[in-house]
Amino acid sequence: MHLKRQVLSPLAASLAALCLGACATAQPPTSQSALVVRHAAVAQAAPAAAAPGAAPGQPALVASAAKDAAWPTPEGMSAELFYRIMLGNVALQRGEPTLAARAFYEAAKEARDADLARRAAEIAVRTRQRDVAEASAKLWLELDPSAKRASEIIAAAQSGTFASGGGDVDIDNIEARLRDAIAEAVAAKHNAPELFLQLNRALADKTDRLTTFRIVQDLAKPYPDIAEAQFALALAAANTDLKSVTMQATATQAIDRALALKPDWDRAALLKSEILANTSRASAIAYLEAFTKAHPASKPGFTALAQLYVEDKRPGEARAIFERLAHDNPDQREYTFAIGALSFQMKDWPRAESVFNELEAAHYGENGVVELYLAQIAEEQKHYDEAIARYKAVPEGERNWIAQLRIGVVMAKKGDLAGARKYLDDLPAVTIDQRVEVRQTEAQILRDANDNPGAYAVLTKALTEHPDSPELLYDYAMVAEKLDKIDESESKLKRLVELKPDDAQALNALGYTLVDRSKRLDEGYALIERALKIAPDDAFILDSMGWALFRMGRLDDSIAFLQRALAGRADPEIAAHLGEVLWAKGEQGRARDVWRAQLKTTPDNPVLLETVKRFSP
Fold first, then answer.
1. Helix and strand counts by DSSP (H, E) for the chain
2. Tell me, what DSSP letter sits at residue 231?
3. Which of 200, 278, 197 is nearest to 241 (CA)?
4. For 456-484, what is each residue's pLDDT tens digit?
5. Cα separation of 430 and 442, whole Å?
6. Whole-model pTM?
7. Nearby residues of 101 by Cβ (< 8 Å), 6 or more positions away
8. Residues 113/35, Cβ–Cβ less than 8 Å
């Protein structure tokens, strides 16, 4: 077994963000700390906005989401993380900072990224969201203990000096004024629908979600025949907790009433699909398929359906939607971009290259994003000289640094390992992050060349210069494990946990190491259990729990966790684990089926191949 590669390197994370989630080349794993330095790029090509006021915590039905092919890739950004970042950016573009702050906060929690937490906190401060500001600032300070601004925000929130509407606001007075305004608008037949559509946003920074729901429920009650009133009620219920049977029922009943009054209302259809997706993605897909069939001109409906196809790992169907949209709207190149990104994920290199060449000729896209895609496409096809030339063509800016690192990787792939290392040494790495990324990249190309001792030497030297770099600590632990230096691996992971005690990935890495490479099963299990409480849907942590349970002899429980993990992320190492446990349980046929299915998409993964060979020589 091995120490699992659970998190993104700065290089891979940056590619995931800058290529909008569609660059699938595996890179050295470590924290996602570099992810959101470039996260604003993901809003570049949104063909339409998310459903305004979409329920925080629910998958945002952003019109452009499918363009980024954001289902989990071998080392890419997760779908949920991508959609939260996308939702935050689109919400800002639409002037909905309340929704944006919450979206960025949720993304920051998943990515464990200080930049995202900072952005969430600052937006929340400006829009007087005390709870969100305090939570975001606490996360920001946890991830970056030197952030003085985060401490200031926390102190203001806790001292009562924070300018939020949550404390001394006269809710009864606000409700009375809103009731009077709505009654006047209804009587005058003027602007009442718009007032209802603004209710949730108007109340969001003045009170908590349950109070908002109560107010909206009271205000909407006299107007059962105004679709917007029912929409507002459905949204208020969805914003509370759709895990509540009562709120789920209220939201469903209200949105169905809104759609009965306005059957072709895109915005209501998107909210209904989100409500459905909370319990069943299949139901949401079926609903949107029916809605778009009945309303073939609904671009938001089709793009929301495409997103759900992406989440359901049906990229071909998602691409077909964008092919249609691009045909019908040739001047809206964001649909063409979606086709290219989905083609990239599907490894349809000729189609992807054709699309991105077209976009490059049209000068479409944020600075360097199309050029970076084209370079990746050449690299994936092993056209290494062309890939290097294309990486060199990436214009100055943040993507240029990624391209420069990538040139070193491609040189190594061509067989010029010495030249690649010299090239990386000569790169003008200015910041500490850049210097760390250079050393990580050098170590990775050595590992790819099966020179783990060389990678170990590089990382050892790098850690003398940056002893508390979480990224280097993690990479060092991985290489030490490969060299059977288990004590050193454990030591570095313990230091990582000391630096980031609430980091789910750090806890999981140490826990998995203890479970897999020592007899301290209970200790490892406890660490994984802590990680799972922080990130209950993380596929790799679910995999670790499954493996721990297997080592403890609890085969049925192990299979349940591993099946959940594989359903969330089609990773070859998870498939290797699931097959091994099934085999141990006597279900050799099912084990072979799992391995065979995964080998179709990742035929060269060494862990999967070793497992298959061990049990089916």
1. 32, 0
2. H
3. 278
4. 999 999 999 999 999 999 999 999 999 99
5. 17
6. 0.69
7. 88, 120, 121, 123, 124, 127, 129, 132, 133, 136
8. yes
